[in-house]
Amino acid sequence: MFYKDWKPFYEKIINDLKLNFEKDKDAAFLLDIILSDKKIVSIKRLEKLIKNKEIIVFGAGHTLEKSILKHKKSIENKVKISADGATSALLKHNIIPDIIVTDLDGKISDILLANNKGAIVIIHAHGDNIEKIKNYAKNFEGEILGTTQIDPTNFKKLYNFGGFTDGDRAVFLANHFKAKKIFLTGFNFDENIGEYSFADKKDKTMKLKKLKWCKYFIDLLSKENNLKTI
Known about the structure:
- This protein has 230 residues and is of the alpha/beta class.
- It has one domain (3-229): sialyltransferase cstii, chain A (Alpha-Beta Complex), CATH 3.90.1480.
- The chain has helices at residues 3-17, 21-34, 43-50, 64-70, 72-75, 86-92, 108-116, 130-136, 166-176, 204-224; strands at residues 54-58, 79-83, 99-102, 120-125, 144-148, 158-159, 181-185, 227-229.
- The protein has an eight-stranded parallel β-sheet, with helices on both faces.
């Protein structure tokens, strides 16, 4: 997805969740500056990693760990993209994701560890994670990339592949680079928030509203792509 296609969705989300466009812009400028001296992964490398491959995207829902145990053998042969806190569950079972999509809400020490072990980390900038960007983005030493939910053309190191939450942005990423097939696991849209969402200090009402948008986008992508939930 390109920004011209994403913009109408973004405008609806802004209105629905009362988000602050100016803060989204401030976060993007900050991340762009921090990434100026980082090891930026090339778009060609991302495309080579994803295009025509079977991808599994790990959400941080309450069924995640059970699913990892059930499908561990088949997981090994797929390109693995974890959504933020799902990284911790994968590391617990000695699995290093190939890509991590994060707004830095998960367990930072685990995301840093995975990055040091070869995982590409794609950090998202939005108005609510400015302090996390200040505190943590500078600490990544492995391959990294930045994303924004606004128009990316004003930034040197940021992209917008579509999506809003870590989970659906991970699926949009796989879709953007033309994955052969996308498997979803750990995506739960009920009110039972999983431990790997690390939601104990978050506004549960807002979390559930964001999950509704995540489900909306997953459903939208499912109509046009080869998505399968396992």
